Amino acid sequence: MAHILVLLGPTAVGKTACIDAIADQFSAVVYADTACLYKDLHIGTAKPSAQEQSRIPHYLIDLLDLDQSFDAGDFFRHAQTICTEYAAHEKPLIISGGTFFYIYNFLFGLSQAPAPQPGTREHWHRRLEEEGLGALRQLLFSIDPITAHRLRPNDSYRILRALEVHYDTGQPLSSFPRPSILRSEHEWLIIALQRPRDELYARINARVEDMWRRGLPQEIEYLKKTKDARDDSPAMKAIGYRQFFMNLPDLQAVKTQIQLDSRHYAKRQITFLKQFPIHHFCVADDIKGISGHVENWLKMS
Fold it and tell me: How far is residue 50's CA from residue 138's CA, in Å, rounded to a whole number?
């Protein structure tokens, strides 16, 4: 059984800085962040720096090429292997990142819905290109209205996943049970970092400005020319990258769109946090308080 701190919080709240500040209390960090998985994405991902990664081992960063896909099942299997390897370590692990869907499934376990059959995923991606997301969402309403009402209109990954399940099994995704009890394989401490909304949004805007100064538009051009980055590349779906493929009028419009989409993403993350059994809500800069919660948790374990 591994002891695991799950450190949650919306984008730009300060998760990476917090991890760096409390790193000495931990054995390793498992990153749950779709964008950080891609080894050619740097400026737009806000990955921990080389110096931050040198403090303790960091996992599930720089793992994939641009055209490779990764889902919650992949994350579960990779993270479970790492946590099992560290279970005997005297210090706990951290799991943190912005892809809350990965973390939620790791905490509670994967849905009982089967993985897609060979060719199914390609079938629905082809239909997405031909018909558009709106048409596929309406199709989902006709075959699985429970799931369709639960998903955001632009959540292409989960809309396609629901269609895949029905295509392969003839049953709606909503008919497969969703685990609701924390897995007992590990010992959990779940902390959510917080900031006032206006402060968080200001940090998001400033982060995007910093990405621009560091050369995000040039990174995109490099990826297009040397890595064949395209709008249908899985890696280019990440915020900070997909906006460059949206036919916006100029780079200023791209930057503004990234800031807007990042703020909207943070808002959705804050809503998603309500689904987690949070043990402590902490001000993001209260490192002493966060460290104290960890110490007390380990004493009681």
Answer: 45
CB contact at 8 A, 191 and 25: no
- pLDDT, one tens digit per residue, over 123-175 is 998 999 899 999 999 999 999 999 999 887 877 878 999 999 999 999 999 99
Q: Please give the C-alpha separations between residue 195 and each of 1, 73, 142, 181, 290, in angstroms, as whole numbers.
A: 32, 31, 40, 28, 14
d(CA 73, CA 79): 10
Encoded tokens for 181: 């009890």
Question: Tens of pLDDT along 18-60?
Answer: 999 999 999 999 999 999 999 999 999 989 999 999 999 999 9
CA angle 186, 190, 192 (to 5 degrees): 160
The tokens 């910093």 sit on which residue? 210
Q: Which long-range contacts (CB under 8 A, 24 or more apart) does 162-166 make?
A: 163/124, 163/136, 163/139, 164/116, 164/120, 164/121, 164/124, 165/113, 165/114, 165/116
Burial grade of 237 (CB within 10 A; 0-12, 13-18, 19 or more): middle
